[in-house]
Write a structure and sequence with these properties.
Blueprint (H helix, E strand, L loop, with lengths): L19 H10 L15 H5 L3 E3 L6 E3 L3 E3 L5 E6 L5 E3 H10 L6 E4 L12 E4 L1 H10 L18 H9 L4 H8 L3 H8 L8
Antiparallel strand pairs: 1-2, 3-4, 4-5, 6-7
Helix pairs in contact: 6-7
């Protein structure tokens, strides 16, 4: 059995003298020794932390360049490994290191940049504060009818939809919205006062 040509690797060679792992690395990066973004860093968690962001000169944000993970909405959030080897949110790590304990609190971005880890742009608050901040900045779905900040239809259009006998699919095409939106208006879930 041939062994992988990469120094220290004892896996079976499967292609051009390399194991599958190292051969794929050669195909992807041009070299079996190119680890890409998975650079092995030495030092404490805080030393490693300071190697994983770039400072945006305009905003002062420390934009995370290390690993990320999407939240439930698909927004990427920074991840970091603490001194115990545990994967944690990098912005929580930053706030905790520079400003103190965040237990039981949300670490929120005052700058509204999810990849920012600048402790001056972070605040530890409760869920209610975070939701109010979101509402003040016009990023929530709260409100009713045409006053909802992301509403597409006017209250008059919603009234016409409620009163119409046309099929929902036709109404959706006429108003440029989804059939689900039409259905929710008809059931009185949205545009309640229309």
């Amino acid at each position: 059995m041939k062994i992988c040509a990469f120094p220290g690797c004892e896996r079976k060679a499967v292609s051009r003298g390399h194991c599958d792992k190292h051969y794929r690395r050669i195909l992807k990066r041009g070299s079996a020794s190119d680890y890409g973004s998975r650079i092995i860093l030495e030092g404490s968690a805080i030393e490693k932390f300071h190697l994983k962001y770039k400072i945006d000169q305009k905003t002062g944000c420390w934009i995370w360049t290390g690993s990320t993970r999407p939240n439930a909405k698909g927004v990427l959030y920074p991840r970091h490994t603490d001194d115990k080897g545990k994967s944690v949110s990098a912005h929580r790590f930053s706030h905790q290191h520079y400003k103190g304990d965040v237990k039981g609190k949300f670490v929120c971005h005052k700058c509204d940049t999810p990849l920012c880890v600048n402790p001056d742009h972070l605040v530890a608050e409760n869920h209610a504060w975070n939701m109010e901040d979101m509402r003040k900045k016009g990023r929530s779905y709260k409100g009713s009818g045409e006053n909802a900040n992301r509403s597409v239809l006017t209250d008059e259009q919603a009234r016409n939809i409620k009163e119409s006998v046309l099929p929902q699919s036709k109404l959706a095409a006429m108003y440029g919205v989804s059939q689900k939106t039409i259905s929710r208006i008809k059931r009185g879930e949205t545009y309640v006062h229309a």
